[in-house]
Amino acid sequence: MARKTETRRKELRENLIAIAERRIAADGLGALRARDLAAEAGCAVGAIYNVFGDLTDLALAVNARTFHTLGADVAAALALAPEDPVEQLVVMAQAYHHYAAANHLSWRALFDVERAPGEAAPEWYLQEMGQLFAYISDPLAVIFPDRDSAEIALLTRALFSSVHGIVLLGLDEASAGVPSDDIDRMIALVLRQITTSS
């Protein structure tokens, strides 16, 4: 009996994640409403909170999937990139842009989930972000062999923040005035400039 209950709970969890994933992709993070989710899942509203602590936990579960597909896209682009480490960074950053453009609301949800002040990000989030950072730090270690690991880590975060900012503002053309067709070019210009100056 306990096993059947656990199986049903697991099935409901996967179903809710899939429903939430579709809603976020179509209408954004604000589209997550317990009543709507329960109606589509065919369960009581209270059943959602038996599986997830709150809707933020559900959104984080969706984000875990989004991070995984984002990482897979970046890894696939890297596999086809030239051996030159600077160009590897450019290819990865442009893959990040393309993913964000194609999955805009899901990508925005990665960074828009609200947490209580001082609350640490979940471990899975840190691991997924760490994997993205590893894709960046490995070429940087080749480009700057004389920099220690702390400097490489800081530069990794700086480059990610730079690319993320370009993509974020570029996709919202009203904020930055950057035509979407120029985002890849801007990314390449910035990365090549930064990585070819010591």
Architecture overview:
The protein is mostly helical and 198 residues long. It folds into 2 domains: 1-53, Arc Repressor Mutant, subunit A (Orthogonal Bundle), CATH 1.10.10; 56-195, Tetracycline Repressor, domain 2 (Orthogonal Bundle). Helix content is 78%, strand content 0%. The protein has helices spanning 2-27, 34-41, 45-51, 55-79, 85-102, 104-112, 123-143, 149-171, 173-176, 183-195. Helix 4 (55-79) packs across helix 5 (85-102) and helix 4 (55-79) crosses helix 6. The chain is elongated and about 60 Å long.
- SS class: mainly alpha
What Rg is obtained from the alpha carbons, in whole angstroms?
Answer: 19 Å
CATH architecture of the largest domain: Orthogonal Bundle
Strand fraction equals: under 5%
pLDDT under 50 segments (min length 5)? none
Looking at the structure, what is the overall shape?
A: elongated
What's the domain count?
2
Give the biggest sheet: none
CATH homologous superfamily assignment of the largest domain: Tetracycline Repressor, domain 2
In CATH's first tier, which class of the largest domain applies? Mainly Alpha
Number of strands: 0
What characteristics describe this protein?
mainly alpha; 0% strand; 198 residues; elongated
Task: Summarize the SSE layout with pairings.
Blueprint: H1 2-27, H2 34-41, H3 45-51, H4 55-79, H5 85-102, H6 104-112, H7 123-143, H8 149-171, H9 173-176, H10 183-195
Helix pairs in contact: 1-2, 1-4, 1-6, 4-5, 4-6, 4-7, 5-6, 5-7, 5-8, 5-10, 7-8, 8-10
